[in-house]
Write a structure and sequence with these properties.
Elements lengths: L2 E2 L7 H13 L15 H7 L11 E7 L2 E7 L6 E4 L1
Antiparallel strand pairs: 1-4, 2-3, 3-4
């Protein structure tokens, strides 16, 4: 069962770390560094607005801290982070 969490941040990497910490009931600083699973800068850049001003859309998944993470973007909404 996946959990989509509303986290008060625009940064996708912060949503992931905070979401996993919330599900685990632990301090986010006790989790392994996210960059061991995915490059946070690349994650932010992959769906960034193009030079022509168009938004990209897509989905990416990876494992982090014993959870399966899915980040989905579309042209109209903020990214949705799902944690299984």
């Amino acid at each position: 069962m996946g959990h989509s969490l509303a986290v008060d941040t625009d940064e996708v990497h912060e949503r992931i770390v905070t979401g996993v910490a919330t599900l685990e009931g632990i301090d986010p600083l006790s989790l392994p560094p996210l960059f061991e699973a995915v490059d946070p800068d690349a994650l932010a850049a992959i769906f960034a607005t193009t030079e022509s001003g168009e938004c990209r859309a897509g989905r990416i998944g990876f494992s982090y801290a014993d959870h399966e993470i899915t980040v989905e973007f579309d042209q109209y909404d903020d990214p949705v982070v799902t944690i299984d």
